[in-house]
Write a structure and sequence with these properties.
The protein is of the alpha+beta class. The chain is built from 3 helices and 14 strands. Strands 3, 4, 5, 6 and 7 form a 5-stranded antiparallel sheet that branches. A 4-stranded antiparallel sheet has the order 8-9-10-11, with no helix packed on it. Strands 12-13-14 form a 3-stranded antiparallel sheet, with no helix packed on it.
Length: about 250
Amino acid sequence: MKRKRTKRWYADALLGVVLISGCAEGDSVPEKGPSASRIEQPPVDAPALLATSNAAVAVDTVVSDLEVPWSLDFAPDGRVFVTERAGQIRVIERGVLRVEPWAELPVFARDEQIAPESGLLGIALAPNFASSGHVFLLGTFWKRSQAPPSRTIDRAFRRVAGVFSPRAAIPYENRVYRLTDRGGRGVDATVVIDDLPANFYHAGGALAFGPDGNLYVAVGEALASAFSKDPVTGSGRILRYRADGSIPVGNPTP
């Protein structure tokens, strides 16, 4: 039990450090759109002390030069897999960040006008990762039935409609991909779950395997908070799947 608590503390601490290290001085956090005021991030060059209820905890930088690191998970062999919101999966091995991404996915994470919150988000290594090499990733993508809009009024319309009319046709969706670790690279990208609610803001995006072996997926309300009360939409809730994307029999709502 002590070992599990220690590992969890280390994971939480490392996540905090990785998130801080990936933010450059002057990075902004959009609140309500492009006109929101900038929130300056403090520099983190020097180690700091965190006050806790019973002790001071030293904080150190593990790696830096990450682009908006979002989530991480630990492999049995000690590697740390980290998602960068722009679409890269990076690997920290023996305390060193590999130069080449483990894999890249074509997520929607950049736009010169709206500074989206979407992109490559959650990551979860399969419970049997040591034998299967499976890594699950959640991200925001253009819907496959719809090509990315051109730089025309159509694009502006979709942007405004997505914010102010939840029933408008949103061109984005969240998907869960399964990749396989082979030769130190992520290959065989396979869609496991698709058509999850998404938008350029409030996209959600956490993944975790539960003790029941099922995959838990956190979904944002995708700028349509009223839909969070409707169990049919799947917005703003935590969904449970089997690792192959099928629905467990015991789900409260199928």
